[in-house]
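In this supplementary section we document a worked example of the pipeline. Step one takes a protein sequence of length 521 as its only input; no multiple sequence alignment statistics are reported here. Step two produces a three-dimensional model, which step three serialises into structure tokens for compact storage. The input and output of this example are shown verbatim.
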Amino acid sequence: MPGMALPVILKTGLSHLVHLFNFNLLAMKKYIIIFIAALAGFTSCKKLDVTPPDKLSNLTFWKTPADADLALTGVYGTLYARSGQISTYAPMWYENFGDNTYTQNNQAGAQQALVAGLNPSSGGFVADGSNSLYINAYKSIAACNTFLANVDKVLTGDKLTQYKGEVYFIRAFNYFLLAETYGNVPLLTADPITSDFKQKVSKSSRADVLKLIESDLNNAISGLPNQKFNTGHAVKGSAQGLMARVLLFEKKYPDAAAMARSIIDGGLFSLNSNYPSNFYKPDQQTSPEIMFSVQYSAPTIPHPDALTMILILPGYVDLQGTQDMINEYEANDPREKMTFFFPGDTPAQGWPYPGTVGKPGVNNWTAGFYPSKKWLDPKIVNPQPGLLDDQDYVWIRFADVKLMYAEAQNEAAGPDASVYKQINEVRARPGVNMPALAAGLSQADMRAKIRHERRVELALEGFRYFDMRRWGIAKDKLNGFIQNPLIPATKTIYKDNFDFWPLPQSEVDRNAPALIQNDGY
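The serialised model returned by step three reads:
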């Protein structure tokens, strides 16, 4: 099982179990019992199981090594959580909360958040009950906690160390999403099956949450295999890459630079010579650049609603670049046209509809914006509703690690030769071939260059919104931002307290008075 690709492991359909859950913090124990009951049901569906559900963990599970394989599959399966038509673990949808892109159908609740402002009842990823990032992340954390509390009963040795390392990584991944988005959140590590959750939960400080994240990632780094990422299972580089991101977020610049440098010097990962192919199949499966992704495999495990459909089909087109994003590109940067469609594009430029020309105002292409080309498979021609596609959702890639090193080292020591080297190598990759940065930049000038490079290199990958928040520039950029220069009267709203999303009001109410809403909501 450890050497098997994750999509193969998930052929039973276990990956979609998370869609069956209805979760709140006080009911965590109940739903992890359901989780284990469902897992058991998939393995013994030919025989009626009359064991009481509340006894499953003690009588029918965690008895053999196969149970660990099944449970690990279920933990990864939580990363398929949906929020309406899309997934909270699909990074591109976080772009719509910032200045890079626009969603005309309010995917993820992003347009509502920008134009009307955030509130504790905001829809989509923010606070919409079972659709929110908050709820889906805690579902995944609950599964991780149960796994970590029980896997020692059935495994020993290297396999135990690796499996626990994978789950430590996934728990850290979820807690970091919560910490950078909501700020102070409840810190839960106990097994929901055996713990008493009658007591209402309260928030922990973000410092304590980040401390757990670092601890989990250290456990993952020491326990995961030092190999390339290609099976869907987290590897040592996955955990190192996330640790570099966490340390950069915490402004621990020397530590972040050292962690990123260890990945670079390790030599396992490299820049893909075909930049666009990081974002579609089958090229993703052999990309030397991808360090962690949520993997799909059509037709067995396709996207529940095709990503291609939501990106480019008439009636959707929900990841359109702003003019401000387009203006960020330097002249002749080929990543501009690798990432977005432009008026007049034909199939020769990747437009997927033969015999037509891309045109604003037609087929839901909103005039003043630019539809996404990144994440589309160029082999798909004339896409239609019902398409089964399976682009993996890339969360960590080597170009980001090199840019994280450049940023951290510049903040820690200034623009030394190593900073230039990493950013220039990203710019000079085959197929991009952008010129090297001018010599003699000041630290402030280099900071601006790095921020520019992150925006264009990582466009539509979910980083810009979080980058602006950690740089302290979100309010300056987003309050009063005009998404479309053709509609100058429509401006976005961003207040100081928006640096932390509101907790879902339903969760605050369930846990009152212990769980206190974030300030300003």
